[in-house]
């Protein structure tokens, strides 16, 4: 007997256990390199660090939900996880991160070179994997997602410290850094299952909204979560001068004095003791935290509504539950 | 009237001028980014620096040689150039380079972040481009090449300062860093033209051997070329402790004292004034420079022989000439 009810991603993991075993076996096989042992060392450090494998599960769930019984959803799920892992390796170099999932980052344990080149290797491996099912529409979706992800990263780099960045640009960055891979993950599940077009679209919409909700929650918790739950310290984004949704909302409502404050701490990066506390006061004053929370909840609702048109099933219920779960930490 | 006879790559550029214009237009179009202007800035710096466009020309020449008259050789040529450009951006970060083609590198003009992320964007763009012709074999070849390239880079990083690195490992590194893209470039030209299998194989063999010759020449000139011709200073690889073919040959023939020298300067990186001169003496003493030169010439011959089976044509003659040209600087 279980003492606590399972969380949605645990239910998904149980329902898709056989498929996930196949995905994990394929990942281990394809991250090997006969000639360059550094590659599996670095990859294993990240892949086996105990992430939730949320993205590959989305692909598996979407394919099964649409009645797929072929072998290729496993390749596509592994593809999605490889793209995600490659992105993390490069992100940690770009952000000069020292911790990820509570462990030292690869760029710290090895070096930036290893992270850049092993990331490239995983990108290449992901493209090999996505070619294998021989489905051109899948290739189109995943190669487009890769471009949106990379564009979003560049956009974030240039927009993050610019106070002119508005909610529309923020949404673009969030689609790039998170939602594009979520929506591609669910969409290719439907495509490989040869699902009707309206179902493929519903799966895309679900992944897109889920990814956006997921990222907004992450950005919100950075100004008010507890370290144990997030693995991040409150104010990391503030110290790294990353303009995220709560601050964008506070800047939009700022008077001249407040605007000068944001200009100094974010654009100029001239931060002093007490600045984070003042920032939190301004976020509270303008209701920016509550408004951000409301946005996240709205995206979560949108995700659930999107898949209401799909045939009812346990998997659909679990995806519903997952959309609730990603916002559970803030609701 | 021309005063000097054209060089082979200039002949190719003239023969393929219309196609190359289309490739350049496609490159400019696809390196654009609506949202992140940093992307075309960085890309243009590299793409428009006046490289010879050797790799895309190989794809165009191979396709035309096999009678192709469709539109997709242009996409594949642009793909190959994007992969090459992405690799250069990441290489310069990994090597901490300050100059490329006689100009400051992107990582110096902007920063490492921009080079990593814009490189990722170009990789993603290259995959979008290669998907468009809808040819699964082309995708297989190019995604495999991308993996070999990345694996070769990682292998080089770990093997370059290890005196146990032998000629077999060197060849693997060289295939990764140079020949894999050359051979993929020529091979996909044949495949898109639906050429018979023996012609596709001949084109692959040509590209492979040409790429190896090209890289051996580059490594040889590092110990004996003039700066104006190479854009590099004599001894760059020595100072960066990169084990290349001349040194591998000298190490294989070294006595105990010489081995201790190589161990100190390459493995330990403890270099002093006069060490480069001593290294050059050892290379001369063991005939390592002559032996390396002979290897490059042999690969150039192999490239020419490979395409002897193809139907005679002006383009085939130019590819012959190109194989002579890449070793002309050392013969």
TrEMBL record, chains A, B:
Listed EC numbers: 2.5.1.-
Q: Which Pfam families match?
A: polyprenyl_synt
Record's keyword annotation contains Transferase: yes
Question: Does the keyword section mention Membrane?
Answer: no
Q: Which UniProt keywords apply?
A: Magnesium, Metal-binding, Transferase
Name the protein family: Belongs to the FPP/GGPP synthase family.
Name of the featured protein: Polyprenyl synthetase family protein
């Amino acid at each position: 007997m279980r003492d606590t009810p399972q969380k949605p991603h645990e239910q998904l993991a149980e329902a898709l256990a056989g498929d996930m075993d196949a995905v994990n076996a394929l990942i281990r096989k394809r991250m090997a390199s006969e000639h360059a042992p550094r590659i599996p060392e670095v990859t294993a450090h990240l892949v086996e660090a105990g992430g939730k494998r949320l993205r590959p599960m989305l692909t598996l769930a979407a394919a099964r939900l649409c009645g797929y019984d072929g072998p290729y959803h496993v390749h596509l799920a592994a593809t999605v996880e490889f793209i995600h892992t490659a992105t993390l390796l490069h992100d940690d170099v770009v952000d000069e991160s020292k911790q990820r999932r509570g462990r030292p980052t690869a760029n710290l344990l090895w070096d930036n070179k290893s992270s850049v080149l092993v990331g490239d290797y995983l990108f290449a491996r992901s493209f090999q994997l996505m070619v294998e099912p021989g489905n051109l529409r899948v290739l189109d979706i995943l190669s487009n997602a890769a471009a949106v992800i990379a564009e979003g990263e560049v956009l974030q780099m240039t927009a993050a410290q610019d106070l002119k960045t508005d909610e529309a640009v923020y949404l673009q960055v969030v689609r790039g850094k998170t939602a594009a891979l979520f929506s591609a993950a669910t969409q290719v599940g439907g495509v490989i299952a040869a699902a009707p077009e309206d179902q493929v679209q519903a799966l895309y919409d679900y992944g897109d909204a889920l990814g956006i909700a997921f990222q907004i929650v992450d950005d919100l918790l950075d100004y008010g979560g507890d370290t144990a739950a997030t693995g991040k310290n409150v104010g990391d984004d503030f110290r790294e001068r990353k303009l995220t949704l709560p601050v964008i909302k506070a800047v939009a409502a700022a008077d001249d004095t407040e605007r000068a404050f944001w200009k100094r701490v974010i654009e100029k990066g001239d931060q002093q003791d007490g600045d984070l506390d003042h920032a939190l006061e301004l976020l509270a004053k303008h209701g920016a935290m509550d408004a951000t929370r409301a946005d996240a909840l709205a995206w979560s609702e949108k995700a659930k509504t999107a898949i209401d048109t799909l045939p009812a099933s346990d998997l659909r219920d679990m995806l519903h539950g997952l959309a609730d779960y990603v916002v559970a930490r803030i609701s």
